[in-house]
Sequence to fold (324 residues):
Amino acid sequence: MGRPPLEQAVVVVTGASSGIGRAASLRFARRGSRLVLMARGGEALEEVRSECERMGAPAVASRGDVRSEDDVERVAAEAERRFGRIDVWVNNAGTMAYGEFWEIPSDIFRTVVETNLFGQVHGARAAIARFRRQDGGGVLINMSSVWGRITTPEVSPYVVSKQAVRAFSECLRHDLEGKPGIDVVTIIPQAVDTPIFEHAANVTGGSLRPIPPMYDVGTVAEGIEKCAESPNREVNYGRAGRALELLYALAPKLYCRVAPSMFLRGTFEDQPAERQDGNVLHTTGPYREDGGWKAHGKPRLRRAVLAAGAGALGALVGRKSFRG
Ligand SMILES: NC(=O)c1ccc[n+]([C@@H]2O[C@H](COP(=O)([O-])OP(=O)(O)OC[C@H]3O[C@@H](n4cnc5c(N)ncnc54)[C@H](OP(=O)(O)O)[C@@H]3O)[C@@H](O)[C@H]2O)c1
Fold:
């Protein structure tokens, strides 16, 4: 037996209760895949599980923290026990923290890296062990980010984790060379309209907005579904990351003058915001697919584009940056 079609495949999705993971889980359910859904918060996960079952897809909700290797292994074992194998593992669970490095508490920094990087290391270990011993292998899908390509101020733990995820994925491909049947995909999106910006820890004192252009959550979920069927090495959403990466390679001094200022102006709104730990240490809602930015935040997003442009221009003509 080769790799089964998605209609018969067993798919594990981490971070399945919100945003991209939630949207991807429902897409797999629509195809009839058998699903194992993982996140820390039980109620929201149960909601997604019932929705999958309503679509006719057998689904298991398995609560756990991706930072715990035991939790991840337990979820993989549950998938095998229930469905006999694992064909696709989506390493999607992730979290963010905004603030200058020295302002971000140590436990928040560590947890973001542990969740985003070690969560995926644990997922890869559990999935690849099964892929290697079963007929048909399997597909491992790792979520990186545009920050897997570029660096900016005030998101250091996230950037560190997402660059590491991209490197980890590449290392896995090297190690799997000559072992046919196992594919590793890295998804690299720019901003996606999900609740992650509400969930993020924020110690900056200012309220946040994602920098447009922003992708619909459905577009990235569709990409995950496509990669599960026809795996690609890296899938990018948005060109800004690549363009800025090229700018950094060719003219690092220019990059450092323009990009940080563009990012700061585009991200921070004028309104103050209370410090928050968000969902980094403990789960917290809202749990939904959509962040509501495109539907309700158009003027704010327009202001973000204008501010980012002004920041870049200001930096070029030597004006002081937003936080400078
Ligand atoms: N949205 C974007 O702009 C964007 C862009 C590029 C890449 N990404 C990446 O895409 C992935 C999904 O992001 P999203 O925007 O969909 O975020 P989201 O809406 O905040 O959803 C995050 C999901 O991860 C789960 N999660 C968080 N920490 C966890 C942990 N320790 N153990 C298990 N589950 C955990 C959350 O549930 P619980 O809190 O209940 O555990 C939730 O289901 C992340 O890896 C993110 O870095 C997002």
Q: What stands out?
A: The radius of gyration is 20 Å.
